[in-house]
Amino acid sequence: MDDTIILRGIRLLCLCGANPEEQDRRQPYEFDIELMADMTGTTTDNLEDTIDYGAVLERVAAVTDNEAFQLFERMAQRVTDAVLSDTRISGVVLEVRKLRPPVPFEIKSAGIRVSRSR
């Protein structure tokens, strides 16, 4: 059974949206990420012996900084691909929330949750 590293409330500005104005201006998104990995062999306090979640966040930010998307479902898939590029991570649960969805309703956010594993 794997252990879980939990990263909550990661805020990034992304080019993502189906409307033309959403492709011209970065919008705020919030990410929650759960990383599954076998950490039973972590017997030291060395960062090399565990998942460096700072490095994971750098890969996530690289996706959102360098790519544009029309659908946040596709953005979620690209982010999970980046997370799983660390072969020690056996699975990821990713939740992405668009904090200002362009709909004519009072809504806090719109989002998606995806789970991927090897």
Order of helices and strands: EHEHEHEE
Indicate the structural class.
Answer: alpha+beta
**Weakly predicted, low-confidence segments:** none
Beginning-to-end CA distance, first to last residue: 14 Å
Summarize the structure.
With 118 residues, the protein is α+β, with helices and mostly antiparallel strands. It is 26% helix and 38% strand.
Task: Present the secondary structure layout.
Elements (H helix, E strand, L loop, with lengths): L2 E14 L3 H5 L2 E11 L15 H14 L1 E2 L2 H12 L5 E10 L11 E8 L1
Parallel strand pairs: 1-3
Antiparallel strand pairs: 1-2, 2-4, 4-5
Notes on the structure:
It contains three helices and five strands. The two termini are 14 Å apart. The model has no long low-confidence stretch (mean pLDDT 93). The longest helix has 14 residues, at 53-66. With 118 residues, the protein is α+β, with helices and mostly antiparallel strands. It has helices at residues 20-24, 53-66, 72-83, and strands at 3-16, 27-37, 68-69, 89-98, 110-117.
List keywords for this structure.
five-stranded mixed beta sheet; 118 residues; elongated; alpha+beta; 3 helices
